[in-house]
Amino acid sequence: MAxxxxxxxxxxxxGPIRSRRLGVSLGINLSPDDGKVCSFDCIYCEAGFNSQxxxxxxxPSRQKVxxxxxxxxxxxxxxxDPLDVITFxxxxxxxxxxxxxxxxxxxxxxxxxxYPQAKVSVLTNSTRIFSPEVxxxxxxxxxxxxxxxxxxxxxxxxxxxxxSSQFTVERVVExxxxxxxxxxxxxxxxxxxxxxxxxxxxxxxxxxxxxxxYRRIMPREIMLYSxxxxxxxxxxxxxxxxxxxxxxxxxxxxxxxxxxxxx
Length: 263
Fold this sequence. Notes:
Elements: E1 13-19, E2 23-29, H1 62-79, E3 85-89, H2 100-114, E4 119-124, H3 132-138, E5 143-147, H4 153-160, H5 169-176, E6 184-188, E7 190-194, E8 197-200, H6 204-217, E9 221-225, E10 236-238, H7 241-255, E11 258-261
Parallel strand pairs: 2-3, 3-4, 4-5, 5-6, 6-9, 9-11
Antiparallel strand pairs: 1-2, 7-8, 7-10
C-alpha cells in the first residue's frame, strides 16, 4: 500500500546532522525547498513520491548555494563546530540542477577554505552520469556515491521506478565503469510488496547478478544499507544488519571489493 508522505528539507543548506554512513554532515539540497525533483520515484524514498509535485521555489542557483554554504561554514567555524562531510542530498536528484558542475567547484573551494579536512560527498541515483560534464564533476569529489539497487532490469524498475524508459541496467552498469577504483556503489537492500508485486533484491540470484555487475564496475567500495525511516510504500521490510553483513561477506569474497554495511 502506498501512502502520502512528504519529508522535505526546507532550505538549500541544512544541518549539520549525524549521518549513519558519513559522520557529522552538512547537507546541500539542489532541489526546490518545497517540492521534489527526481529522475527516480523510488518506493522507499523518505521524501515521498514524485506525485507530490515540484513545489514553487524552483532549483537553487549556483550563487544562492555558494552564499548559503559560505554563511553556514563561516558561522560553524567561528563556533568551533566539527564537520566531517558536506553531502549533496535533499529533495531529489542533485545532478538534475543545471548548475551542478559549477556548484561542485564552488563547494570544493569553500571546503578548502573553512574545513579542509572535511570530505565532499554526492549521493546520486546515477541517471545523469551519461553527461560528460556531470561525470567530470563527480570525479572531483571525495565520495562519489552512485546508486545501483539491482542488476536485474525488472527489479530495478520496480524498486527505483526511473522516469525515463531509456535508463536501463545495462546502460548504467556500462557507464559506472568510468568510475573504476574511485566511485562508491550504494545498494539499498529491501523486501516486501509494491502494487501487488513481490519486491526482494536479497535473494541468492539477485545478489549473484549484483556481484557480476560489481565485478564489471570495480568501484573503490560497495555500500550496503536498508530502510531506516518511514517509506511511501508501507509494505516494505527492513533487512537487518546481520543479514546485510552476511550478504556483504559473500560480495567481498566473490569480488575482492571492500563492502561497508550500515544498518
